Amino acid sequence: MDFDIKLAYYAAGAGALALLFALFTMSQVLKESMGTPRMKQLSEAIQEGAMAYLNRQYKTLAPFAIVIFILLWAAGFFIEQQPGSHLPVGPASAISFLVGAICSAIAGYIGMNSTTKSNARTAEAARSFGLNKALQVSFRAGAVMGLSVAGLGLLGVSVLFIIFKSPLIINSFAFGASVIAFFARVGGGIYTKAADVGADLVGKVEAGIPEDDPRNPATIADNVGDNVGDTAGMGADLFESYAATTIAAMLIGNTLFGFSGVIFPLLVGAVGIIAAILGTFTVRTNEGGNPQAALNVGLWSTNVMTLIGTWFIAKTVFPADGIAEPTGVAFGNVSFGIFLAVAAGLIVNVAVGWLTEYYTANNKPPVLRIAEASKTGPATNIINGLAVGMESTFIPMLVFAGAIYFSFWSVLSYAPEGQAALWSIYGIAMAAMGMLSTAGMVVAMDSFGPVADNAGGIAEMAELPPEVREKTDKLDAVGNTTAAIAKGFAIGSAALTALALFSAFVDGVKHNPNMQDALAATGGDFIVNVTDPMVLVGVFIGGAVPFLIGARTMHAVGEAAYGMVEEVRRQFREIPGIMEGTGKPDYARCVDIATRSAISKMIFPGIIAVVIPPLVGFGLGAMALAGFLTGLTTTGVLLALFLANAGGAWDNAKKYIEGGALGGKKINGQPNPIHQAAVIGDTVGDPCKDTSGPAMNPLIKVAGTISLILGPLLTRL
Asked: What is the Cα–Cα distance from 432 to 245, expressed in whole angstroms?
C-alpha cells in the first residue's frame, strides 16, 4: 500500500495541471482588448453585480457550513468506533467536508471572474476580428471554469486520500460540495429568472423594447443572472457530481478490489482532465463556419482520448494475473469489462446531448410544433411545450437504463463465480465515472454560453454595428444549445451518480457494526425488498420531495419576479426620459432586488434537502432510507428532464420566431401576437429550465452523499 499510494500523486498532479492550465488560459483571455470605454463600463457593472451576489451567497452559507462541520467533528467523540473501523464522522470527516465546501466555492469564484471579465472582450473580438476570434475568447473563458471544476475536484479528493488513506473518511468531501452546490444552483436559478422575467415581461412585452436595450432597467441584472445561474450554478452542480461519483466508485472499489479499485477512478479522472486540456486546442472555426460543429469536435476528441487512455489504465491497474486484495480472487480479464463500463458512460454523454438537442433546438420538429402552436395564443403554446417536456423523458430514461444494464453486464461477463453480482456494481460506478471524466470539456461548453450571451447584450447596449450583434447572436444561439446539452449531461450524471451512491450506501450498511445482528437474521446481507412496507414508505416520501422542492423554487421565482416587475414598471413610470434615451435607468436597484430575493428564498429548499434524509434514516431505519433514495432518484430525474427540456423548447420556439419566422417580432410596425404568445411561453419555461429543473440534480446528490455518511451510523434496519 505504501508504494501503491504514490499512484494517487499522479491524479493529484493532473488536478494541479488543470488549475495551472486554467490560470494560463485566463491570462491569455485577459490580454484581449475590452473595446470602447462604454463596453468596459458595462462589463465592469456586470462583474460587480455578479461578484456582489456571489459574496453574499457564500457569506450566508458560511454559518450553515460551520454548523455541519462542528456536528461532524463532535459526533466522532460521541459515537463509539470499533478498532480498525473508520466511521464517517470525527475530525478527519469534518475537515473533508470543509475542504469540499471551500473547493466548490473557489470553483465558483474562478468561473465567475473568468466569464464576467470575458464578455466585453468577446464582443470586441467579434467587432475587430470576426467569428472565430470571438469563439476563441468566449470558449477559453468557459474552459477556465471547466478545468477549474475538474481540477479542484480531482485534486481535492486525491490529496485527502493521500492524507487519510480511507475513501470512507473522505466521503464528507462530496457532502460539502453537495451542500454548496444545492444552494448555488437554487439561489443562482432564482436570481437569473427573477431578472429575466422582469426584462422580458415589462421590457419586451409591455414596453416593446429588447431585453438588452440600455433603456431596460433590468438588463444589467439579467446579464448578471446569466453568470450566476449558468456559470456558478452549473459549475457547482457538476463539481459535486464529479466528487460524489469519484468517492462512491472508490468506496465500492475498496470493498471489492482493494487498492486497485480505489485508485482506478482517480486515474480515469486524470486521463479525462488531460484529454479535456488537449481537446481545447481542437475548437476552431472560420468566419462562415458553424461554432456548434467546432465545439462538438472538442467534445468528441475529449471522449475519444479519454476512452483510449482508460484502456491502458484498466490493463495496468487490473492485470490478468493480479489479485483482488479483499477476496484473494484473480482479476482475470475484468479490465476489459471495466473498460466497457467506462465506454458506456461516455456513450451516454453523446446520446443525452443528441437527445437534448433534438427536443430543444430551434430547427427540430418539437420546437417547430410549439412555434406553430403560438399562432392560436399562449395557451396552446404552453400545452405543446408541456407535451414536449413529458415526451422528452422517455428515451433518455431508456438510455440511462441501457447504460446501467450494459455496464452491469460488461463486468458480470468477466467476474469469477461467486463474485459476479458484487463486481458488476463496480461496473455501474465506473459508467458514472466515465461520464463525469469529461466534465472539464462539458462545463467549458456550458460556461461559454453566458459569455456569448453577455457579449451580445454589451454589443446592444454599447450600440455597436448590427453585424457585431449578428456574430454574437450566432454564438449565443450555440450557447443555448450547449447549455441545454450541459443540463442533460448534469441530469444524466445525477442519475448514474445516484446509483453509484446508492450502491456505496448499501455497502456502508452491510459493514455497519450496529447492524450485524439484524443482518445476521436476514442471511448477512442487506437486501432492499420492494414488498417491505418500510421500503414503500420511503419510496413514497422520496418520490414526493422533488415536487416539494420544485414547488418552492417556482414560488420563489414568482415572488422574486413580482418584485422585479414592479421595480421596472416604477422606473419607466417615475424616471423621466427613459424611453427617449435621455433618462438613465437605476440598474443597481434591480441587481439588488434580484440578489436579496435569491439569497432569502434559497434557504428553505436547502434546509429541506439536508434535513429529510437524516429524519427518514434515524426515524424509520435503513430500509426506509433505501426506499427514500429510490423514490427521490426516479422522480427527481424524470422531473429534471421534463422541466429542463420543456423550458429549453419554449425558449427556442421564441427565438425561432424572433429570427423572422411566422412574422417575427412585429407585423406592420405592431407587436406580433404570435411572438407575444411565444414570449409568455418562454417566461413560463424560464424557471422550469433554469431553477426548478436544475435544482433536482444537486437534490438527488445531496440525499446520496448524506446517506453515505448515515449508512454506517444507523442503528436499525
From this structure: 7
Location of C-alpha cell 454560453: 449
Which of 693, 255, 332 shows the shortest CA–CA distance to 508?
255
One-letter amino acid of 650:
W
- SS3 assignment, position 208: coil
DSSP label at 137? Answer: H
- Conformational region of residue 361, where left means phi above 0, alpha means psi within -120 to 50, and beta covers everything else: beta
And the C-alpha cell for 439? 466534465
pLDDT tens readout for residues 50-100: 888 888 888 888 888 899 899 888 876 766 555 444 566 678 888 999 999
Contacts with 716 (C-beta within 8 Å, 6 or more apart), sequence order? 515, 518, 621, 622
pTM of the model: 0.86
Per-residue cell: 576? 423621466
Determine contact, residues 61/176, Cβ cutoff 8 Å: no
Q: Give the CB-side neighbour count of residue 608, counting CA atoms within 13 A.
A: 23
Per-residue pLDDT band at 205 (split at 50, 70, 90): low
Please name every residue paired with 631 in a beta bridge, in sequence order, or none if there are none: none
DSSP-derived secondary structure letter, 671: E
- Supply the pLDDT for residue 459: 87
Residue 275 has pLDDT above 90, yes or no: yes
The region that residue 33 occupies, defined by phi over 0 for left and psi between -120 and 50 for alpha, beta otherwise, is beta
Max mean pLDDT among 208-212, 227-231, 634-638 falls in 634-638
| Mean pLDDT score of the chain | 85
User: Residue written as cell 438588452?
Assistant: 212
Query: Parallel, antiparallel, or unpaired for β 670-671 and 666-667?
Result: antiparallel
Place of cell 411561453: 681
CA distance 355 to 371: 19
Please give the backbone phi and psi of residue 308, each rounded to the nearest 5 degrees, phi first: -65, -45
CB 546 within 8 A of CB 696: yes
* Assigned C-alpha cell, 460: 446592444
| Dihedral, 516, 520, 521, 526 alpha carbons, nearest 10 | 80
Q: Note whether 186 and 695 are within 8 A (CB).
A: yes
Q: Transcribe 385-414 into DSSP letters.
A: HHHHHHHTTHHHHHHHHHHHHHHHHHHHTT
